[in-house]
Amino acid sequence: MDLSKVKDDRKLEICRLYYKGGFAFLPFLWAVNFVWFYRDAFQRPAFEEQKQIKRYVIFSGIGALIWSIALTTWIVIFQKYRVDWGTVGDELTFLIPSGSL
Amino acid sequence: MFSQHFIILIFTLTYLSCLSNVNGQRLKELMYENIDGAFACFRRLNGTHQFGCTSARSGNVGVIHIIESQSDVDWLVKDSLAPPYVAVVHPSMFTKSLLLSLQSSGKVNGVAVINNGSAERPESFSHEDSCPNRYSGLSLRQGQTCGVQEQKVWNPSGTSILLMDWNFPIFYVTEQSHINRLYDCHQTHNVVPHPADQLDRSLCALELRSHMYASVNSKKCIQRNSYKTLFSQMSFCDPLGGKNVWQTLFPRSTLKESSVKSDKQVESNGSIAVLAARLDANSMFDGLVPSSVGAVTSIVTLIATAELLHKMIPPSESYENNVLFLLLSGESYDYIGSSRIVYDMKHGVFPVIPDPSVAQPPPIGLHHIGPFIELSQLNKPPLGHPLHIHRLNASSETDKLISYLKRNGQYWDIQFKDLPPSKNLPPASLQTFLAEKPDIPGIIVTEHAMQYSNQFYHSVLDDINNIKFKYSNGSRVADDSIQLYLRNLTNTLAHTLYEHVTGKPYVGAAIADLSLMDELLYCYLEQSNCTLFQSAGNTISPAKPLSYYVGVKHVPGLVPVLSGSVLALLTGTQTSFNETHCHNNVSTDQVYQYIWANSKWNDSASPKVCLQTTMNFSDAVSPAFVIEGYNMTSGQYSTWTESVWPELTAKLFVKPSFRHELMTLSLGVTVLVLSFAGVLFIKVRKEILFSPG
Fold it and tell me: Taking CB atoms and an 8 Å limit, are A96 and B227 in contact across chains?
């Protein structure tokens, strides 16, 4: 979709949809929402729907940030301690590396 | 105009790139030369550790360095400058200290052992422990005896290389043409006056792939076997195991009115004599486990004894005492086969799970076992030397057994020397039985005394040359041959067991068939598609020596199947059943098995025949894998598993120098950048380039 050709009221609809969709444990939707509508929310001259879009973009951004911090922390902990956790570590692993611990 | 030219140019380029794809396969073949038929070391695991070798997932690559002397080792470890290397060694140099120094140098990525069979054999070559099965058998009950308190070790040449974890692959190359290629390639590319000269030239290298999926220990990998992910279930390792072969001299049945000759429902204690031998051996390399002294001599002696005993006792006679012939699998790995039989006997389910509605052999318990003779590490001793008899306790029964053996042996020129009773028994299946019931009157008959005289125990060199076997193929067998010696031993054993069964010495004229012994040895050592095995109904084995590695439990091994069918062929009773009826009805009769044999032994022209036999198989799977929730670190039962691997391959190729590789890479990167620039250029000017007309 070429966002530049979409009308502003439609943009707001899309932005709201993505924002709501992100609550279904889909942080990537929030991240995409943030990037896509960043320009409309902050860099364009004011228009009618801008205030609402701005709100959705900010919350999407915060949500995506929290998710990414949480995921990064978990991935680091998991990679570091998977072997020490033994059986539990194996059970949490989707693809067990062959030939190693 | 310009655009038309451009389109033609693009077509030409596409066409050319297609052409190069067609040639791609051949280019790869030109670059790599497969070392086919190389045997690889693989990973095995027990309840606590991992053993053996593995490569990286995509294989290990190393520059070939041929090691013929200590100076080559020093050069590789200290001076060499173009690591990683693959050390190519002869068996005589393949020692534990060499492997350890290669591993610690950090420069070696793999080892290839070369042996074309014609070179001089090393004095000793055994990678097994110096005390095989050190922690199992009697050690479980009374502590380890081998090698402690000035006791000698059984296998003095054992290096334990097999029981170590190597972080590089080890391959064994036997074909002369491959060995020549290795030498030629090394000579052409790798031999330089100074180590630094190796840096700026292409070098001959080997790529060894033997990646192992399992790791850590059996417990871990069996746990991992059971994990199922969304899309797949991966297998990491399989328990070692196979089938034991067992047979009784007289049929035993729970059903009185069946065709069984006498009522043997209530067998007295100690009435069943056992003649046992192991069916398996071990070596470092997959698919190459010959075992002349380790297994074959004992197996063929046992089979020939069974055959002779059936000839000695006419079908009309029947006796209270019986003989149980046992061929045990997995004994090299902490007595898998015998520990399962003892476990089953304790639980009253050997040989079959009792079922009152079926005619079946009644359970045999440990208390039924009388004289127990195990044949182990047999060979023809030097002239004038005896075979040795080992036992745990002195008892009147063992004394009697030994005196029978000695008396019968005199007649056949076989001398026995009974060693003083000792807790330090050689590694043998009998140990498992004694650990459960120490008063079983058991003896182990070996060629060696307190140390193996076999210098190649559990190695690839325990082959046909190790017992100096020469196939006679119907012609006269030499007087000093192994065939004649084992034939005489067979007579001795059969006469001894006859005395146990009948209570009187044998006075008849039946003796073991020398040509049968010749054929048996030939079948087990040289050609597994020999006439005898073919007569026994075998059509599956290829024309090469058998491999005596026990294998994994769900893949039936060839050795037990062949041994069982040969026992059946040689001792079975002929029936009139045709092929479709040549099987037993398991729901009514488990006493006999029926084997469809291609022909009788020694008469290949005879028609196909259905044989009735008491031979049967039993599971040789360690109780560790049967008991629910067994503690894999307890050491009570064998916990050995074998890793799963995707491929075992070795490839020879010329590896470019580092500078060359760097140049190729930078050229590639340049082309990539240029092509991006080109696309960008075309995109920007697309209106001009692709305008019609």
Answer: yes
Please give the average per-residue pLDDT across B515-540, as a whole number.
90
pLDDT digits (tens, 9 = 90+) for A13-42: 999 999 999 999 999 999 999 999 999 999
Question: How far apart, in whole angstroms, are the C-alpha atoms of residue B102 and residue B168?
Answer: 10
> Closest to B54 (Cβ–Cβ): which among A95, A96, A99?
A99
* pLDDT top residue among B543 and B405: B405
- Smallest Cα distance from B236 to chain A, Å: 8
Query: Rounded CA gap, A89 and A78, in Å?
Result: 8
pLDDT in tens, B366-399: 999 999 999 999 999 999 999 999 999 999 999 9
Minimal-distance CA residue of chain A relative to B229: A94
Which of B44, B51, B216 should one mutate to test binding to chain A, selecting the residue with the greatest count of A CBs within 10 A?
B216
Contact across the interface for A101 and B215, Cβ inside 8 Å = yes
Residue B206 CA, chain-centre distance (Å), reads 27
Q: Quick check: B57 and A95 CB within 8 A?
A: no
Complex prediction ipTM: 0.78
pTM: 0.89
Strands, E assignment, B351-463:
369-375, 387-390, 416-418, 442-446
**Sheet with B108-114, side-by-side order of all strands:** B33-34, B649-655, B203-209, B60-67, B85-89, B108-114, B170-173, B39-40
Buried b (16+ CB within 10 A) or exposed e, A63-91: bbeebeeeeeeeeeeeeeebeeeeeeebe
Rounded percentage of chain B residues whose pLDDT exceeds 90: 73
Q: Is there a contact between A96 and B224 if contact means CB atoms under 8 Å apart?
A: yes
Q: Using 50, 70 and 90 to split pLDDT, how confident is the model at A60?
A: very high
Distance of residue A70 Cα from the nearest chain B Cα, in angstroms: 24
Nearest to A90 among B43, B54, B227 (CB): B227
